[in-house]
Amino acid sequence: MSGAYAEFFQRTFGHPPRDWQARLGDDERCRDRLLRIPTGFGKTAGVTLAWLHHRVARKDPSWPTRLVLVLPMRVLVEQTLASVRSWLERAGLAHEVGVHLLMGGADAGPFHLAPEKPAILVGTLDMVLSRALMRGFAAARGRWPIDFGLLHQDALWVLDEVQLMDVGLATSAQLAAFRTGDAERSLRPTHSWWMSATLQPRWLATVDHAPQLPALEHGLLSIPAAERAGGLFDVRKAVRLRPDLATPKEVAALAVESVTPGALTLVIANTVDRAREIHEGVLASLTEGKGAAKRLRPDAPDVRLVHSRFRPHERAAWDFLRGDAKVPAEGRLIVATQVVEAGVDISSVQLLTDLAPWPSIVQRIGRCARYAGEAGTVTVVGTPGAKLVGPYDEADLAASATALAALGSDAGPASLENFEEKLSEEQRATLYRYEPLHVLRRVDLDELFDTSPDLSGGDIDPSRFIRSGDDRDVTVVWRELGAVVRRDLGAVVRRDLGATNEARRLSRVDCPLPARDELLRLPIGDARKWLGGVERAYAFDYLEGAWKLLKGSRDLQRLHPGSLVLVPSTAGGYSVTAGFDAKSKEAVPEVAHAIPGAAELASEVDDDESLSAAQWKSIATHGRETAEEARRIAAALGLSRDLGRLLELSARWHDAGKAHEVFQSAISEKARSAAGEIAAGHDLAKAPSGAWVRGAYETAGRPGFRHELASLLALFELLRRAHPLHEALLGPHRETFAILGEPLDESPATDAIDAGLPIAAELVALDAGELNLVAWLVGTHHGKVRCALAGTPKDQKHAPEEGRIHGVRDGDPIAPLALAGIDGADHMLPAVELALDLATLGVGRRYGASWVERVEALRSRHGVFVLAYLEALLRAADVVASQREGVLV
User: Fold this and answer.
1) Least buried of 47, 205, 789, 867, by fewest C-beta within 10 Å?
2) pLDDT single digits (tens) 190-206
3) Strand pairing partners for 520?
C-alpha cells in the first residue's frame, strides 16, 4: 500500500511524500482526525491527495464522495483552489472530480446536480458553516436544504488554520458530534479533520464533542522529534523584540530600513486601518518631489498593500502573493493584515509584525524563510498596552510577549516545536486560550432545520455560531444603475433605468445578483456606519426576489450578516488601490457581470418557476424521467433498494401539482397554439422559456404559489379516497375519536375510489413512515415548503381571509391527469380537491396526524441530515431530468 500511495503522491505533487503525509495516505480507514503539522510542511497537499487517492484513484466507497476544504479567509481559498486544480491535472483526474468554490458571490457550480460523483468544495468558514446550519449566506432560500444535506452526508470536512476560526471551530465540533450521534441512521460516511500548526485538542472539547476527544488525541498526527532534522528543520529565523516601536510612522520607517534588494520584506499589522497608515507612511518616505512632480524614488522597492477589504476583481491581479513571484532588483515591501498570516505561500527575508496572540505569531513567523536553505529575521513591535490590541485581548498579547521572551533568539521550525513540547499544561492553557461565546446545541440545529420565514420574511440568524462580535460581514456591490443589462424571456437586452433611478424596488431581472468578482465584504458595524452616509442603497430580499431601498437607520439595523447590499457606483467608498475607503467620493468602477440562469432565478423567490422552462413535456413524462435519474443516483451511491423505491415514487409524484390551473395559466395560450398538439394539454410540466407569462401568479391573484404543495396535498387526498383508514391516515386514531365521542364512520366514502387503481395502489402499499417520507420529498423538493404549513407573508398580504398556504386555497381542484406508474406506463389520477387540513395542529378527521406531527416523526426516524440529503438527491434528479433532450410523449 505504501508504495502505491508514494507513487501516486510523487506523480501528483512532484515530490515524494513527507513521512507524515505517507502515514496519512497509507491509512485506508477514513475517520475523524486531528493534524498538528508545522507551517510549510504541506498540510493542504497531504490531506487532499490522501482523499484523492482513496476515493477517486482507488474508488473506495467507504471514503466520502465530497472533500470540503474549509478555510478562514478568502485569500487562502483562492490559493488552495489553484493548487487543487493543478494536482488534479497532474494526477490525470481533472475529468473525474469537480472543483467548486463556496465563497460570497462565487458561482459554486453544479456540484449539487451530481451528488454521486467525487467533488472538491473549497470555501470560506462563513460560507460553509452557514450552509451547514441551513442558512447559507448569500445563497437563495431554495438552496439551503440541498447544501445542508450534501455537507452533512458523504463529505470529508478538512478545517485548516483552525486557530483563526473563532466560535466556528466549536460549531464544527458540535456538528461532528451530532453526526456521530446519528451515525446508525446515516446513509453515507461523513468525517472531520481539524488541522493547524498550533492545534490544541482541548479546543474541540465542546459539550457534545468532549466524549470523542480521547480517541482523537490518541490518533493525533504530528511530526515526532526523531523526524525533525534536515530541510525546513534546519532553517534559522533570528528574533528581534522592539517594544519601543508602536506608531505606524515608526513601523513604516523601520520597514523601509529593512528592505533588502532582490528580496521580500513583509509587514503584518493587526488591523486594516493600521496597515493603511503604515502603507501611507512607507510611500511618504519613498516619495520625492512636490505637486505634479511627486513620484517614487527610482531606487524605491515595489510597495503593495494587502488586506481583506478589496474586491476579488482587484485581488486577482495580486500575482506578487504567489510563491514563485519574481521580486524586482530594488526589492518588494508588502504591508498586510492577518490575511497573509496563514497558508499564503510567500517567503520573506525580513518580517515585521505587530505583537499578536501566540497562535497568530507562530503563523506569521511561517511567512519568513519558508523554504529549506533560507534564513530570515523576525521583528516583533509593540507591547500589550501600546494600542496594538486591535481585535485581540490584552491578556493574550501579554502571554505572547512572555512566550517570545522565553523562546530565545531563534524561531525556526525546530526551535518552535521544541519550545512547544516543553510547555506546561498551565502555560499551554494561557497561550492557547479558547472560550467561544456561543455553543451550538441540538435544539438550535433543529430550529434552524425549518427554513420557513416568519410573517415579516425574517429568519433565525446563525451568525453567533460562526463568528463573534463585529467580525460578521455583509457584502456590498457597486453598480452603474443608470443603464443595466437584463434578461428578458431568454434574451439579453439593455434597459435605461434613468426614470426609476430613485425607485424603492429593483427587480433581480433589471439588476441581477452579483458575481464573486464584484463583491466586497465588510464587518456589519462598519457597513452600517458607512451606509448611513450614502445617498441611496438597496438590500436584496430573497423572499421577494428584489432589491429593496434601505430607508433610514431602522432598515440599516435590520441588515444581518450575509446581507447583500447594492450601492450606485457614484456613491464612492472604494479605491482599486487602497480597498474600502469610507472617505472616498470617487466613482467606483463597475465589474462586468453575467446574467443569471434559470436555476439561480428559480431558487431566489417563492413563485419563480424558471426551472420549468425546458422543452415541452407532460407531468407524466417528466416524472418518469426524474424517476430514472433518481434510480441511477441511488444505485451509484449504494442506497438500499427500499430507499431507492421511495425516491422513485417521490420523483413520479413530485410535479403532480403542476396540473393546478394557476400553474397551467402561467404558460401562454399563444405559445401553446404555436406549438400545436404537443402543448394543447393542461398537464404540462415543462415549456420553453418564451412560453411563460411574466407575473402570471400575480395576475391570477395567487402570488407565491407553489406547485409542490399542491402535489403533496393531492397525494394525501388520493390515499384518503382509496383507503381512509390507512395507518398513515385515520387508522391509528379510531380509539381517540371514540373516546371523544366522535366515532369514525367506517362505511365507504361517497367519493371513494378503487384502492387497486395502480396510481393509488402504490400509496396504499406503503406503511406510515414510508408515506410520510414520500410526502416530505414531494412537498419539499424546491426547498420552499418546509416543516410547518402556514400562510406566507404573500398569503397574509394579498388574501388573509382565505387562509391560503403558499398560494394554495382550500378546495382548489386538480383535474384528472396521467402520472407515470411503477411499471413505466401512464396511469390516471382522478380529479381531486385539495384540502389544507394537514396544516391544522392535532389529529384531524380527514388525514389524521398533522403535517407538524409527521415531520417530527420523520426527524425522529431519519434525522435532519438524512432528510435533507434525500431532498438533495431528488432535486438533483429533477434538474438533470429537466435538462434532458426530447419532447412530450
Assistant:
1) 205
2) 999 999 999 999 999 99
3) 476
